[in-house]
Amino acid sequence: MACAACHTVFPELTPFGREFKLNGYVLDNIKQIKGITTENRETLSLNAVPPVSVMLQISYTHTGKALPDSAVSGALAKDGDVLFPQQASIFYAGKIADNFGAFIQLTYDGVGDSFGFDNADIRYARHFSFGGTTDADKHDVVVGVTVNDGPTVQDVWNTTIAWGFPFSSSSVAPTPIASAALDGGIGQSAAGIGVYAWIDDSIYAEFSLYGAALRGGTHPLDSQQSSVVHGASPYWRFAYERRWDRNSLSVGTYGIVAKLHPGGGLPLQGPTDQFTDVAGDLQYQFIGEDHLFTVLATYIHENQKLDASFLSTAAQNPSDTLKTLKLAGEYSYQRTIGGSLGLFDTTGSTDAARYPASDPADPTAVAVAYQGSASNKPDSRGYVAEVNYLPWLNTKLQLQYVRYSKFNGGSNNYDGFGRNASDNDTLYLLGWINF
Amino acid sequence: MKLNRMIASIASAAVYIGGVAWGAAEVPVANDSPLGRTVQTCGTCHGTNGRSVSPTFPNLAAQTAPYIEAQLKAFKDQTRADPDAQAYMWGMAAQLSDAQISELADYFSKQPAPAGGKSGGPAAIARGKQVFEEGVPARQIPPCASCHGAHGEGLATFPRLAGQHAPYLLKQILVIQNALRNAPVMHGIVKDLSRDQMQAVVAYLESM
Cβ–Cβ of B55/A243 closer than 8 Å? Predict the structure, then answer.
């Protein structure tokens, strides 16, 4: 199948792409290798040609002002950073057996110079019908189980962090200090299992549990790790999608209650920090012959009950809040030329211990001062503007500009070392190839 | 292997219990039978009842079985090569056997027809009705009804047009006119049809 079946402009999914994922990655018509027993029970149903693909991202990053040298005090790092590759991935997305499939991404990271496990979602899904007296008015439901390596990796809309806007960004430019648990805070440091139902191609309900599953480092997990999930964190997701003509509109909510051990030298016992995220999201897509529009919106309200961090003085307040708003609009002409504009706004409690400024007396801290906040606030605001050109459907050339009007709590001299929010404005050129 | 089987069994049991708890019965045609599985795949875009939502994908309900059969074979052997055929259907039809194709054609042809009655503007519909019933004598275009039936219901390999999505029909006329879809007879008929006439006739067909 062509890219256009599952994607508007990759990686954003079309309604068909969402169905493919919700049905357990098993919609295909590829030649199969079959195995049966003498009782004609199927023991194997495997794609003869595995659905494997490769992704390559090559990027160039230029920030408003060069960052400090990481070792030589007062010197500046090179501004204008080429990553070849920024990221290279191998994907398997398809069937393992009947009703059973997986999306698995293995990634080489150009900054870490390491090859490792990236997004993974393994599913088992089946169709049922209920209600109604005739075939025509029966309800159809897909019921499935997903095992995945981080909250929102399993999500089929493009409003959540794992597959949200911007779909790619610089891996070397400075990024704001604060992010909610569901906005990258937990990331892929947890693994979860969930059950979901997808009713009449319109109502989605999911309940999952996530536990700590950090990769690398000290195992069994101990005080040398940080942000370790305690027990099982419940995650929920509800959404309603309506499709008409060439349009689809979905509104939903998702959230998590995650208890984390701060770690980082502290044993993984005693009190924990509890992050309760409640989020709402909206997605609208118009997929015409020539014109494609998408609107993406998400708002996350996070309550942080910092029992562990407060005791260890890693938090100034016993509880904080963090609010994240993201809006994006995208347009594409014939899936070839397009542009996007996204706005982001994070605000939260002032907390001198969670959002500290660097100590001027400590030379190693000065080198990373741009990551701190002189006002001890997590507030960041700005926009992301993109122009995309796809000479072929599997090749995206992207020019992205990220503009910060506020970064880590301030606009001018936000870090107390003379750096302005606009110094972190980022020009990012990306070549993104899939084959 | 053992672990895989155990995980699969647990997942299967969980889903089954979940489904039963819901008071649901597994769709008889839609999962366990080989035809059911294939219908489910087609239904992702075309609707399991053959009535699609997006006009990119045609309605299949009440389409004539010989037409569905002929098209699936043309997708499979790649003789129907319009852009959407290549993008979607070449892949989907590649492994269908002749027996499966016949079963699918039979299944979708027996589904109740789409509702129709969609209004594309009374003036366009009236003009479209005229093209459909009388053709365009000045350009030697015969009436559509002469092959596709007085009510656009189709006959054998002449497809049903009534109640079909107007954007889909328009795109088919265009790809046939531009010789991107292999339909020599139909190409001869629509080669001089104007854009306005096309839009009128597809509006009428969608309203039927």
Answer: no
